[in-house]
Amino acid sequence: MGAIKQFIPASKREQAKNSLENVKSWLHHKRLICLQSLQERQKTVGTREPSLALDETNNAFVRFDRVQKSYDGESLVVKDLNLDIPKGEFLTMLGPSGSGKTTCLMMLAGFETATHGEILLDGVSINNIPPHKRGIGMVFQNYALFPHMTVAENLSFPLEVRNMGKSEREAKVKRALDMVEMGDFGGRRPAQLSGGQQQRIALARALVFEPELVLMDEPLGALDKQLREKMQFEITRLAHNLGITVVYVTHDQTEALTMSDRVAVFNDGVIQQIDAPDVLYEQPKNSFVAQFIGENNTLEGVIEDIKDGVALVKLDNGDVIDAKPVNVSAKGERTRVSIRPERVEFRKDRLKEGAHLLNAEVLEVIYMGDILRTRLNVAGNTEFIVKTRNAPDQTRLNVGEVIEIGWLPEDCRALDA
Question: What H or E segment, with its residue span, contains residue 168?
């Protein structure tokens, strides 16, 4: 106890005593003091980030409440996560490697413990509940099927550990296999199945005991493109038909946009934006989201004026364009404007009268079947892309041609530089 007194300042000992905290919990707090100060924590107590939380009148099925995670006690890989997931939602956690998305999934599954904060499932804290008692289905990227068991035995295993009778197990296994259209494969072993078939079995095993929450950790990463796209639709259809809640982790942006009710974009342990796929793609709130989701053109410049919801941006090469101000607000502020390739127009009849136009040189035209992908030199950016529909009435551009391009102000977003 003397060593503890030497380690803890007298004022802190008095705080611990007054708050009736035991020495063990206080030392745990002391270890985290470098991650978040006591004053900062007191400021955030009882508050939730409104963009990530549901209305408090709704009961979140899954809730991350001020959750932090550190592996070394010094740096946070997940920083103050406040997130509500309603029952029946398909939520995707999307982000680059090291962004914290998989760590969040592992904490929810119980394979990692939260350093600080609370995780609740249907209103009950699960921080101290072991993984096998949480009643959560899990689908891994590597399938994790038992090679010495048949397909039916793999599906029966989670039912056996729940002490279900034989007849009930057989009925549930049959129903789960029929759901994934694998009813005739119960007697085969995993090695006798293709990658897509093994993924279906892994999905069926996660669903066989009828969990209300299923977690999926990049389950389609090992499949070829065509099969991956087919499984995306199958998983989404099953989730919605069964009414289960799904938390899905991926780094594939197209996968996230295709499958999800909402997408949470992670970077550096923080959710940058969480929205429906169409909102996320068309209305990114910062430069990271705009760049990370889909293909995106950017131009650097300075805000010249903001009036009637339109920002006048002077680009670094001197050209002037119109944009919608998002997280910029003052004249003279640096900005990075974002415009999607399919929203760029080179037909003046589709633009508003008085729209600012830019000169562009055609550098490359790539035929991609359903679309034409044209690379331009615009305001010094030689990687400026325009996508146009491959239609009989579409104007075909030629390499070396100089054209004028523009866009609707609402399609160009002035973001943080």
Answer: helix 166-179
Locate 137 and state its tokens: 């289905």
Q: Per-residue pLDDT averaged across 406-416, rounded?
A: 90
Contact 231, 250 (CB under 8 A): no
The two three-digit tokens of residue 354, written as one number: 């008085």
CA 95 to chain centre: 6
Q: Maximum Cα–Cα distance for the chain, whole Å?
A: 85
Instruction: Evaluate whether 109 touches 136 at the Cβ level (below 8 Å).
Output: yes
Best CA proximity match to 96, nearest among 283, 302, 251: 251
* Poorest-pLDDT segment among 31-40, 155-164, 193-202, 315-324: 31-40
Task: Report residue 414 CA to chain centroid gap.
Answer: 23
Query: d(Cα 287, Cα 298) in Å, to the nearest integer?
Result: 9
The tokens for 244 are 């289960």
383: which 2 tokens?
């990687």
**277: which 2 tokens?**
């796929």
Name which of 407, 362, 369 is nearest 389 in CA terms: 369
Q: What would the mean pLDDT of 286-303 be, rounded to a whole number?
A: 94
The answer to whether 326 and 285 have CB atoms below 8 angstroms apart is yes
Q: Give the 3-state secondary structure of residue 284.
A: coil
CA 387/CA 405 separation, integer angstroms: 12
Judged on CB neighbours under 10 Å (0-12, 13-18, 19+), 56 is: exposed
| End-to-end Cα distance, the chain | 53
